[in-house]
């Protein structure tokens, strides 16, 4: 029996990934090179699990979505030998679409 990690309420479990695009290309927003260095290559992630939401607000994100992550938010989690980050949905900056 495999164990699963299921976020509660408005929390989102994210695994950091590296995209093939530079941060300045995401959404057409220009990010100076000095600022791009501060975000590192891991400013993006893939949604692994999503909570049910809170009160009358359902979760906006779904499993498999690619997202833009903030620098100083989220909680690092190690689970079953993998590294993840847990965020509140409103901490995630944007959803990345192709």
UniProtKB/TrEMBL annotation:
Cellular component annotations (GO), alphabetically ordered: mitochondrial matrix
Keyword field contains Acetylation: no
Keywords tagged on the record: Chaperone, Stress response
Superkingdom: Eukaryota
Coiled coil (UniProt feature): none
InterPro entries, per the entry: Chaperonin_GroES, Chaperonin_GroES_sf, GroES-like_sf
MF-aspect GO terms: ATP binding; metal ion binding; protein folding chaperone; protein-folding chaperone binding; unfolded protein binding
Similarity comment: family membership: Belongs to the GroES chaperonin family.
Protein name, as recorded: Mitochondrial heat shock protein HSP10
Source organism: Acrasis kona
């Amino acid at each position: 029996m495999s164990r699963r990690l299921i976020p509660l309420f408005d929390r989102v479990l994210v695994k950091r990934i590296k995209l093939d695009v530079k941060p300045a290309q995401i959404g057409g927003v220009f990010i100076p090179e000095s600022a791009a260095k501060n975000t590192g290559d891991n400013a993006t992630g893939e949604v692994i699990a999503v909570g049910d939401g809170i009160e009358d607000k359902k979760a906006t994100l779904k499993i498999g979505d690619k997202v833009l992550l903030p620098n100083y938010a989220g909680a690092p989690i190690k689970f079953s030998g993998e590294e993840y980050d847990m965020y509140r949905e409103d901490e995630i900056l944007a959803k990345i679409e192709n």
